[in-house]
Write the structure tokens for this entry.
Amino acid sequence: MSSELHYVDVHCGWGGTTCAPGWSDASEIRTALQMRGIGKALVASRTARLFDPVEGNDELAAGVVNEGGAVDLRGWLVAHPARVADAVAQMRRYLLSDRFVGVALYPDPFTGRPVTARDASEIVKVFLRYGKPLLIHTPSAAAMAETVDIAQMFSGVKVIASGMGGSEWREALRMASKPSNLLMDISGALCPEKVDFAAETMGGVRKLLFASGAPETDPAAVLSVLFESGLSQEDRARILYGNANRLFDLAEDEEEPVVLSAMNSLTP
Amino acid sequence: MPDPESPFDLYTVFGPVPPLGGRGGIDALKQTLVRHKVGGAVVVSTRAVHADAASGNQEAADAAATATGDEVTLVPGAVVNPCSLFVDAPDLSRARLICLLPGTQNWPLPYAPVTALFASGGLPRTVPVLVETRRPGDATAVGMLLKEVGWSGGPVLLSGASGAVLTEALAVARANERVGLTTHGMRGVGEVKFAATQIGAGRVFFASGTVGESLGAGLALVKLAGLSPEERTQVLGGNARRMLGVTA
């Protein structure tokens, strides 16, 4: 990995959109992430999330093989609560590999209904044995409430709430500070006050991670929000890569302090 | 005086918003613009958006007037709330940009008072109009409205579109050359470039929604859009200055 690419994006998508059709091509994703200073990204299949988990996860598995390039892509295994047998089979197939970092759960693609503890329990009970983090997309305060329940029910698993409650980030953060196994990424609303409020509410940055949600959100936009915060460089470094490297065991070498810059990655 | 080549933000907002705190006064806005080297902006008051359009628009015009000679050029924007159209006819004499905010103010489109506004000459013919179209269907409704009234006034800028709604807004802009887009609300990889490709960079205007929304994020999206240097200059400020007649 390039020594200049320190940032770890803990949640982005794999799959093209109208405006980013190349986001299903590993080399195009790597190039785009590299331009934004991101050296490691944990990606989840959009096909798996929106359409067919089995097909999407299999496609992703072929895409996240280690090619030794500048950007290390690893996968989230998307599980759908209505397809437990498929999820269990794919966990067995993929989660023993270090190319998959954990399981991701999303609100229902048709109704937007958040993942509930009842929905998730069967899958999470099986998933516990792999000892990896669980990511739950939380685009609203209601979704965060359910995720807090899941984190409290399964205290032995690290749970990442991704999206910070969207535009309801204040309400979502207030309810999410308690469970010690619940971490938060900073994707979601592009509001300059959000990161400072999160650090204050969560009692520091120990449980905060950088994620973009690309391609629906450009990672550069989320990086800008972080760099508009009043956090120290040390705290920004923890959010950008320190916490993620430790959580996912991604660090290759002893980490050296680096000079962080949003604009470094934003040169036209 | 501001650098006339610097970015110009077509939509900024100042003033308190209760759920978001009270740190968004005009001085905070100016500081944010200077910190990001943005040379000018259209300013809109939260009082006009959330409480009273008449006094809020006055507040924005006064704030812009007192900024003369500062590091940033401020241009007054005025909010028209069609819900109170017949009770409280807006004074738009000082406005350089008129803002219609259906999503934020929670009124529908199509909406008879808005049709009346466009059809009856209630809007100055030479002042550009910004219409918030972040909800699905709003851009389509605006396109149909302009066609229905045969709009031949100033440019109409659709704002707040992202994802599938961006495609909708672009379809409206492609069908009517008086319609442009702002970058406010765009957030996805490739969205700014896609907009410039579909309707030309000359009809895409940088806007952020700061101070409530991230100015840095808005700038980053344009800077990383993969536009040519000429297109980037147009989008970041050239188009807005030309449209508003601003020289600094």
Q: What stands out?
A: Chain B touches chain A at residues 19-21, 23, 163-164, 166-167, 187-191, 193-194, 210-221, 223-224, 227, 229, 232 (CB under 8 Å). The domain at 8-244 of chain B is CATH 3.20.20.140 (TIM Barrel). Strands of chain B lie at 8-14, 40-45, 73-79, 97-100, 129-132, 156-159, 179-182, 204-205. The longest strand of chain B covers residues 8-14.
